[in-house]
Structure formats: C-alpha cells, structure tokens
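Continuing the batch. This is chain 6 of the set; chains 1 through 5 are on the previous pages. Same settings as before, nothing changed between runs. Recording input and output for traceability.
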Amino acid sequence: MQVFLGKFVLLLFMTLHVILFGRLADIAGSSVFVNAVADTDTLIKALHKTYPALAESKYVIAVDKHVITSNTLLNEGSVIALLPPFSGG
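Output for chain 6:
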C-alpha cells in the first residue's frame, strides 16, 4: 500500500498470514506471520531466510485459493498457503 504525503510516498507493508501444510508445517509450524513483503518472491526469500529447510522442500504457493506460477503482488488480507506435493488415493 502507498500513502502519498505531499512530495513523499510512504510505503506501508502489511503483516501477512501464511498457512503451511504437511511436511512444511513440520518445518515452520502450521502458520507463520511475515512482515514487510509486497509480493510472493519477497515472501519466499523471507521464509527461506527464517526457515532454511523450506528452501530444500518442494511446494507450490496458493494466493486466495489459486495456485500461482509466477511472482504475484500481495494485498492486505490475502490468504497465502504453502502446499507440499500430494497424491490421490
């Protein structure tokens, strides 16, 4: 979010809630909160820095119940989930 104050632009970053499942929850817990990220690339960098084992894991990212395949801007209130590989049965 951007707030304009005369000549200055103040960038405000929200706290995002990330839900993790399966083996990913074993690494970082079933949910974590991340500050100061505006997009999914920045989110992943922050998570990998805090939880290095996530960088070694395979997963997909869902934003607002849609699996994404490229960098995506995040909004306040976005629902973010990290989903490990799964198989049917």
